[in-house]
Amino acid sequence: MNNTxxxxxxxxxxxxxxxSGSAKYIADLKFDNMLYGKTIRSTKARAKIQAIHYPVLxxxxxxxxxxxxxxxxxxxxxxxxxxxxAETVVNYIGEPILLIVGPNRQKLKELANKITIEYQPLTxxxxxxxxxxxxxxxIFGKDNKFASYTYEKGDISRAFSxxxxxxxxxxxxxxxxxxxxxxxxxxxxxxxxxxxTVYGSLQCPYxxxxxxxxxxxxxxxxxxxVQTTTGGAFGGKEDYPSILAGHAAIAAKKVGRPVxxxxxxxxxxxxxxxxxxxxxxxxxxxxxSGKIIGMKINVILDGGAYAGISDVVLQRSLFxxxxxxxxxxxxxxxxxxxxxxxxxxxxxxxxxPQAFFAMEMHMEYLAKKLQKNPLDYKKLHMVKQGDSTATSxxxxxxxPLPEMLATIEKMSDYTPKYELYQKNENHHGIGISLFxxxxxxxxxxxxxIIKAKIKLRRQANSQQVEILAANVDMGQGLKTxxxxxxxxxxxxxxxDIIFNNPDTDHVPDSGPTVASRSIxxxxxxLEDAARKLKARWLEKGTIEITQAYKQPDRMxxxxxxxxxxxxxxxxxxxxxxxTTVDPLTLQVDVNGVWTVFDxxxxxxxxxxxxxxxxxxxxxxxxxxxxxxxxxxxGKIMQDSLTNYTIPTMVxxxxxxxxxxxxxxxxxxxxxxxxxxxxxxxxxxAYAAAVAQALKIRIDRLPVTPEYLLEVLQNENHFxxxx
Amino acid sequence: xxxxxxxxNNQSVSIQTNLQKRLVDVLREDFALTGxxxxxxxxxxxxxxxxxNHKLINSCITPIGSVEQLDIMSIEGFKDTERYHIxxxxxxxxxxxxxxxxxxxxxxxxxALLHVNASPNETEIRQALxxxxxxxxxxxxxxxxxxxxxxxxxxxx
Amino acid sequence: xxxxxxxxxxxxxxxIRGNDDTMLLAGGTDLMVKYHGAPGITGNFPKPLLFLNQxxxxxxxxxxxxxxxxxxxxxxxxxxxxxxxxxxxxxxxxEMASPAIRNAGTLIGNICNASPAGDTLPPLYVLDAQxxxxxxxxxxxIALADFIQGPGKIDLKANEIVRCLTIPRRNNTICxxxxxxxxKAAAISKLSFAAIAQKTDQKITYMGVALGAVGxxxxxxKEAENLLTGKIEILTDTWETMHTIYNSLLCPIDxxxxxAIYRKTIALNLLAYFYKEYIWQ
Lengths: 722, 157, 281
Hints:
Chain C: GO terms for molecular function: FAD binding; oxidoreductase activity. With 722 residues, chain A is of the alpha+beta class.
């Protein structure tokens, strides 16, 4: 296989075990003497725990509380603020307080029902407004801000003083739940000499390993994490598994037996992370021709009760906030605030979907205000190679947007349809979104924090090569694509490559499976290592090649000032969505979806198609039907897959796509990141289409029929008069 | 406890059980058939789907008392058929498998459809598989897989 | 765990019913969700369970010239397959739940669940369906609209079992069904609308309109229907009167699936549409 045809599809290496049902997911494993663990959770959004009353426990049943945590009772994230098990206060409904462990799950449930917890309720902060005024006292720090950033570019005060008009505009977005089909679960197994092994459904083996070392006060060699076949993740198994693995391991340590904690759907829905809701405000300075000369933007994310990785999510929202547009003068503020709700976390796109929805809809809004065609208005501001990024870095590589636009216009007939639907009153609409994805970690995270390392090993007298890396296949096809990269670089058959589920006793820390980095960063390390191995192929004996990450020389980032190249490379996308709205019910039909993406060289075009079809559908769900709200007490209302609706096979049709290939020299065979990019553009394209169909302005996600009715009634606009 | 007798993957079986026990638990725990997945526990996602007298049902909301005298087929039984091999090859060819958690249920839903309609059109496929959720693939590649299977397995259904 | 019964005959079932306070389970697709089990944990049933699935006489479907009778073990899918089934019910069954649920859930189970959002109810209300209920003490017939008393509340005594459902066959020339769900398949209704009518020589000879999920039970107004029935010429202000009647009857709620205002507005839109497109001209 040579480099130019690496993209040609192959059968995925794990098809057979998955179609036949023989793949083992975490809930399919059993260990001798295994006990089950159940989590007892807070029923109050914010309260002091006054007393806990326990039933008499039968033999083999145990209670675990915060006193049983051998090390630090804090989950290791960027900030150590979240306890594994609550101590004196609880900060959200669903916060873990106790574990109850025993052999029979039916009995565990009965015992759990007999535990009573007395609370002294405290005033909870459930909204941005309550959080910002620290209702009930700060949950976090002094001001309830987990993180806040400000950055500037150009001369913002001059731009605003020269402005002909200034437009102000605000957008809000809601939660989204990952709704991976496999619920979260972990099994911790105590081993000889104080060691513990944790098996589970996860994205980031080494995040969990580090969290457990801190929680169990154990040295590195005493904690082992093994990934089991993972039934979807989408970011949901990036951060939360550290908590869950901690629970299982703390319990296993106490009772000296394997402990399985396997969530059912209701518990998974009501206690694991969600996408951050956002509130984004624009003040935009326009010159006499209507061109943008400056923007002041404010972003607030709702982080939930604990910091987790919200800081990094906020960074991605902020550094991508101007979308694909070249804005010369800029002032960006943002913070992520604490509320007494379930902590929010990583989700495919990681702060970017909120930002792109807001910016794309703001561009639509400005164009309409100026009575211009929105696409023409967007084209007027589109970045090109050599332009500066929002954070004053540079778009060093070719920006393929013009060719991509020409292609998608042809595929979708966007412009003639747009013009037709502008005139018609028959509730058709078409929307277009332009977007990018900064591939890999934000800033110098890869160099300064992750420091990825992989190994390739060829045993003596063997033709087989083993990949030793900590990245996981969670459905995105990494087992296939990693093997493909190494096989291609070595020019040997894929069947001679071994890549098992990561086990931290055997694989180095090549970093987490997040941020669309696995192919671009880790895949490149594999390619480079494979080329070194090829050069030494004729050597006798075992060969082991270690390859460590080095930041591309051309990238410059100052994290103190949020200044410079926030990302090493950019992947690009354009989506067009066409809709018809039923005037009777305000239900939306999607008549067509067209997409173009530039992700560099695809390592496998069919796997990329799978990312596109799945990512776009998840984006359309986010745009339309995936409603999640809290009740007045801060409890989630849509707590099951019955009430939290994700798209079925009949809700949306085929996603048409075409790939562009702008070769990226620091990615394997020229590949960039793909997984997250595919989700980002669906919501703004959908919202723009619905807005045109109804001739209204949309400023909120999700765009439900209930919301549309509210907008129409506010505008005193009745589609169906009696 | 009562005795329930049924056919499981072509074999007659009997089990002493409480009738309200969920079929999914009986299959996964008592018969170690872990290809039957539990995704939602309320009949919403189809990961636990099995065939009962060749019709698709959700084993998570089927009490074992309802299974008396039925012919139950899980992926473990189906995988020994020629029709399975056609379907599995079609899923591979179309790239219809990602995380794999919905896959056994999807295959059985496809089998149930093809059993009554050997050459379904796109709408019929989407309707027949509409109770099987997938969060990875966006579904279209699964639809393509069922079409490929119908073509390659012409005469088998 | 509760006690369970698995009778093989109708008489046996009636006898158990007469001697123990049981909960009836046919397909179980509603009850198993309501009393939710989890891996290794059985559902939290409040009463002993009486399984009906082994009683073969309850599988009966009888098609007569003037009615169709459907037994308590007939699944939603089997009911949908009855060729003589009124179109309005067939449409509702086709859009209801998912194929796997329709293979297990029963039509009479959906009735006895008595959810305000029960998808078969609005069609069965307008079809004037009747239930046959038996106990060791005898048999009685009851109109569906009388049988359902409130959300989850039905007129079924502890010793009784619903044996079958009877749907009168009429030649409905007009049929309009609309389910407004949370998505296009496998969805619970936010609201639903079912209307049928017979029109002979420009005259409405029969009419039924029922709305689901906009009140504690299905809403049907004979008063409003009578405004149209038997009239040759429909006055323009008839609509106003009808609208007023339904406007005062519809009392939906805000919940996790939709808003009261959406439910009411859209229900009235559908009513107006039906009136304009099917009746007025």
